[in-house]
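User: My collaborator sent over this chain with a note saying "see what the structure looks like." That's all I know about it. Can you take a look?
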Amino acid sequence: MRTLDLIAKKRDGGEHTDDELRLLVNGCTRGDIPDYQMSAWLMAVVWRGLSEHETFALTAAMAASGDTLDLSSIPGTPVDKHSTGGVGDKTSLAVVPILASAGVPVAKMSGRGLGHTGGTLDKLESIPGTRVHLTVEEILHQVRTVGACVCAQTDNLVPADRKLYALRDATATVESRPLIAASVMSKKLACGAPVIVLDVKVGGGAFMKTLEQARALAGLMIGIGQAQGRRVAAVLSDMNAPLGRAVGNRLEVLEVVRLLYEPSQADPRLLSLVRHLSAVAFTLSGKTATLNEGAALAERQLDSGAAHEKWCQIIEAQGGDARAGLKTGPVQWPVQATRDGDLSGIHAEAIGVGAMRLGAGRATKEDQIDPAAGIILEKTVGDRIRAGETLATLYCREEALAREVAPAVRDAFRVSEQPLEATPLIYDTLGLEP
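Assistant: Without extra context I'll predict from the sequence alone. Here is the result:
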């Protein structure tokens, strides 16, 4: 069957066979199918959708499009962790050393930020000297000797996803549930971990704006993993407001280091989610029998300093100086409240866009990042606000840029006369049922 026939079949609502999906994936990967035809097929998928079986088959074909990581030589039960992305979401940087410090190995491949969401690799690279491009041999050696690594996807790991995602990004076909699920899970399957923990973000700063959408995406990803023999759980967590106080690469690293070094001083919501994600990973991997036991183990690793020490080992193994002082943007510009009231909300996407404009993110993949730029939230939801108080501090290189961005950041803070009920941090955890 020709590619043209497959495009027409999906356009008309037909269901692809496994062979047809393999043909599309392999043709795209090799460059045999032109970009304009794959783009047309992707748009047909957005319009018509994919069945569960089609989504499972597409994911399997994508995972098999390149190399896979064999973790069978790693002692213990390796875990992988993924977040669907958000503003101030630095949980992976904290969860990985917590797990590794307790003897649960982690081989995590991460991505870069685009638009208003941050990328784990950009955060790591804000630590001078830190390498994120590791060979397969280096990844396996570091996980065996240190217990964990956080690195970039190797060049030949799921090359189909790299090509398809670039097309989706350029053709307004990113926000398709089956395509999101296939993109995420193809990489997780290829990375080889038998246990996968997903953090699916819900709200204004996330791809999934509603709990119903997030639940459906999480269920689909769990099903894909289970069909391939993996143990998968998904946490549905709030992204209506930024997570933690820091937004921006080096600022977020500093917040993580403080959480690991002095957890009693950490932002309570960030600490709570880190503890819960760690507990899910401990339980799913068999390290603990219950979530309560997992949470207690995570707390012990933090309080004892073991998690912070493991963080230092991971960074130093990848060439960074974990104990060096990290410089922030030279301009520190306060954004002040204009009236009294209760802080009833912080628009996550607006804060993310503000940080991007200051230099902390990319509007396009070619943009350069300023690792020291970003925003510190000085107030959080529920605080009583007085006119003239500082809501946030902007970090960047030029005062003119701070002046330009400040009004939009101020508008992201919703100050009302009456306090509103806070949204839950964790809506649900799926996949841990016996």
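A starting point for your reply to your collaborator: The first helix runs from residue 3 to 11.
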